Amino acid sequence: MSISLKNQSILVTGSAGFIGFHADQKLLDMGAVVIGIDNFNDYYDPGLKEDRNKILAKNPNFKLYRGDIEDLEFVRKTFQTEEIDKKCHLAAQAGVRYGIDHPHQFINSNIVGFNNVIDEAKNHDVNDFIYASSSSVYGGNDKFPAATTDQVDHPISLYAATKKSNELIAYTYHHLFGVNCTGLRFFTAYGPWGRPDMALFLFTDAIAKKQPIKVFNHGQMVRDFTYIDDIVMGIISSLEKSYPYEIFNLGYGQEVELEYFINCIENELDQKADKKYLPLQPGDVLKSLADIKYSTEKLEYKPTTPIEEGIKKFVDWYKDYYQEKDRNQK
Ligand SMILES: NC(=O)c1ccc[n+]([C@@H]2O[C@H](COP(=O)([O-])OP(=O)(O)OC[C@H]3O[C@@H](n4cnc5c(N)ncnc54)[C@H](O)[C@@H]3O)[C@@H](O)[C@H]2O)c1
Q: Among all residues, which ones are annotated catalytic?
């Protein structure tokens, strides 16, 4: 059974983030009321977050609460002020490598912040709690494709450990208080308005500026890159389905070699990359590949965007966005 999201009031944390922005746009298009929360932190260019937010703010059904989910009073006030039907929790400190030098930031945002939000959702009888987990919970597993039934007890980064912790906390809130919880393990989301700390952005930016790119593990890496519209489709379906307790993989279900990925970017930019080959970074996994059978069955999740098409859409956006910025600065 699917519940219509029209006129539903949905709280989206991380609303100015890459995935939050796209999910918000889709929800607003569907006639939902979106209450966004974001602290616009400077982990990456806050200007990009502000620009995403400006687009959302044009819609009268979007309302932003600017603040930090680590601040319990702020979270409480937001839940007290707004009637919330469903909750989509996307705010987190992301970035596997960043966790090595910034452990407290991960614990504060991803554990304390997560708990503040899920606890208030419980206190206010919010129907459904959908939250972002990550493919990184599969750690160094060598079984592919990775299924949600596989063991995920050996995270190899603090980021992954926080995401696995979120799944455990969600289970407890479901068990003790009957909160409907769905965790979504995103597999390397990419697309227009994408994160400047992620490979697609870093490579495109460097190649366009004729600067060298860092290719870790000497290029021997494989990722299941998932286009943002496919990720959003999975988020929307989770909000519509309202399952008591589930965890889903949201991947494309296809492995892409790093070298091929770079090749696609070079083709779109019509420019060769200057590759600097480097060893594996601590915390990075060698491969990710999602088993999406269960998500297809329960969420009717069918990703449709192949990597070549997704990269083209990203590069087109990158050129438009940054050329426009350059023009405005002149
Ligand atoms: N992008 C991916 O490939 C990917 C993969 C797996 C999981 N995820 C998860 O999906 C979610 C969204 O990721 P994204 O790529 O959009 O990242 P993002 O960094 O673009 O978005 C996160 C947003 O949350 C906000 N935020 C962070 N900490 C906050 C806090 N304490 N209080 C209020 N706001 C806060 C940030 O300002 C940001 O706008 C995250 O939970 C991330 O861990 C993303």
A: 159
Quick: pLDDT tens for 48-98.
999 999 999 999 999 999 999 999 999 999 999 999 999 999 999 998 888
Contact 248, 182 (CB under 8 A): yes
CA of 18 to the centre of ligand 1 (A): 7
Q: How many domains does the chain have?
A: 1
Pocket test for ligand 1, best of 186, 231, 252 (most atoms within 8 A of CB): 186
User: Which residue has 């063991």 as its token pair?
Assistant: 151
Ligand 1 centroid, distance to 178 Cα (angstroms): 26
Give the integer Cα–Cα distance in Å for 72 and 228: 30
Phi/psi of residue 165, nearest 5 degrees? -60, -40
> Structure pTM?
0.98
Q: Is residue 44 in a domain?
A: yes
pLDDT tens-place string over residues 245-267:
999 999 999 999 999 999 999 99
Nearest CA to ligand 1 atom 18: 17
Q: From ligand 1's centre to the CA of 92, what distance in Å?
A: 4
Place of tokens 């909000």: 239
d(CA 9, CA 238): 15
Task: Identify the domain containing residue 301 by its residue range.
Answer: 9-193+225-253+288-305
Residue 75 lies in a domain: yes
Which ligand 1 atom is nearest residue 46's CA?
37
261, part of any domain: no
Query: What is the C-alpha separation between 305 and 280, in angstroms, rounded?
Result: 29
